[in-house]
Design a protein that fits this description.
Largest sheet: 4 strands, antiparallel
Strand content: 25-35%
CATH class: Alpha Beta
InterPro entries: Cyclic_Pdiesterase, RNA_CPDase
CATH architecture: Alpha-Beta Complex
GO molecular function, one term: RNA 2',3'-cyclic 3'-phosphodiesterase activity
Organism: Tepidiphilus thermophilus
Distance between the termini: 35 Å
CATH superfamily: Cyclic phosphodiesterase
Protein name: 2'-5' RNA ligase
Number of helices: 2
Keywords: Hydrolase, Ligase
Shape: globular
Strand order of the largest sheet: 1-5-4-3
CATH topology: Cyclic Phosphodiesterase, Chain: A
Number of strands: 8
Length: 144
């Protein structure tokens, strides 16, 4: 099991995949055009272990109202720019560990009181790089 270091914890709103350098400006413009995310925090209320990707995560129910509209708009606009955004409901989650055996995962020792709220004063366009220490996340743009 590989625990995600605290500085790498994040909540993905829309995964856009690889963005060619020549398209980066369009994605940065999209982020700026989106405006601030909704004021209410996202709720994370359960620990889950997803066997397919073998990740342990803190997750929550699909958001309603303003958050649902914000994420759907972001996904639609990203698709219009050529991103291969999956057509499936958004499930807020923070990955805590990778390469997890679902049978061996036990969240009781984490000591996190649930539910947790995830406030979002802004959002970022992040690119990831693989390296010997695992994934490294680099901010390409920050929006609020």
């Amino acid at each position: 099991m590989k625990v995600v270091p605290p500085e790498r914890l994040h909540l993905t709103l829309v995964f856009v995949g690889d963005v060619p350098c020549e398209r980066l400006g369009a994605f940065l413009a999209l982020g700026a055009a989106m405006g601030a995310p909704p004021d209410e925090p996202l709720v994370l209320d359960r620990f889950e272990c997803w066997g397919g990707p073998r990740v342990a995560c803190l997750s929550g129910p699909p958001p309603q109202g303003a958050w649902a509209r914000f994420i759907e708009r972001l996904a639609q606009e990203a698709r219009a720019l050529g991103a291969k955004v999956e057509h499936r409901p958004f499930r807020p989650h923070v990955t805590l560990a990778r390469k997890v055996s679902p049978e061996a995962f036990d969240a009781s020792g984490l000591g996190l009181p649930l539910p947790l709220t995830w406030p979002a004063a802004g959002f970022r366009l992040i690119r990831s790089e693989s390296g010997p220490e695992g994934l490294r996340y680099l901010t390409a743009g920050e929006f609020s």
